[in-house]
Write a structure and sequence with these properties.
Helix content: 55-70%
Number of strands: 5
């Protein structure tokens, strides 16, 4: 009896291992900062909160990653920044990854964080929350960013308690993505119904054409030929 019970337990464990495990969903954060130290600190904090992080060192590269520009013009001339900059990530169209949050520094060479905010809010990524970061506490700058569509304005250096403020924005982004997926599924189902109706209509028309055979036309035309011969 003990041998049978142990064998049953082994079979159950094998079945559980063979069953597909549900994939853990991670929040994807796009971090934009020209400072290597601040970028590494932000990446460490986000990864500690089980977030997937993609780091870029300029607003131009962020737009390139989001697929909002075709060509990347790098305005960074410092060799130290170029050597320490992360490798350019692939555009989202190739990876099929969604971004749940964009965190960008305010003061960056070339495109500032406020300029990046305006570009994002004027594009198809307008529903993605954007958080601005800065080491300078300037009230006018903070008000301008918040009025421009930023969800939060965080002061550097960031701390773990700052991430607690971002939980609601993660949920908001997930709700927007779920709504888009449901809308796309409805559109796909409607398109499938239209295709089915068209195919049914074509099959019915073909069957009607087959019902009218050329023999019937010949039989109808033969009496007319005979009447002409008699006359």
């Amino acid at each position: 009896m003990e041998f049978v019970d142990n064998r049953k337990l082994q079979l159950q464990q094998q079945q559980l291992q063979q069953q597909p495990q549900p994939q853990e969903q991670h929040f994807h954060v796009l971090a934009v900062d020209d400072s290597v130290i601040d970028r590494k600190l932000l990446e460490r904090l986000l990864r500690g909160s089980s977030c997937k992080v993609t780091c870029v060192d300029s607003g131009d590269k962020a737009l390139k990653y989001l697929g909002l520009v075709d060509d990347l013009h790098d305005t960074t001339s410092s060799t130290s920044l170029e050597s320490s900059s992360p490798p350019p990530p692939q555009p989202l169209q190739q990876e099929g990854i969604k971004v749940n949050l964009i965190m960008t520094d305010y003061c960056m060479p070339g495109m500032s964080g406020y300029d990046l905010l305006k570009r994002v809010k004027g594009s198809s990524w307008k529903d993605v929350p954007v958080v601005i970061m800065s080491s300078e506490n300037v009230p006018s700058r903070i008000s301008m960013c918040l009025e421009g569509g930023a969800e939060e304005f965080l002061l550097k250096p960031l701390q773990l308690s700052d991430l607690d403020k971002l939980q609601s924005y993660f949920l908001k982004s997930l709700e927007n993505s779920c709504e888009k997926e449901s809308a796309n599924s409805c559109i796909d189902s409607e398109n499938e119904n239209v295709i089915i109706n068209i195919s049914n209509h074509n099959s019915n028309s073909i069957s009607k054409r087959k019902a009218i055979s050329p023999d019937s036309h010949q039989e109808r035309s033969r009496p007319k030929m005979k009447e002409l011969a008699v006359v």
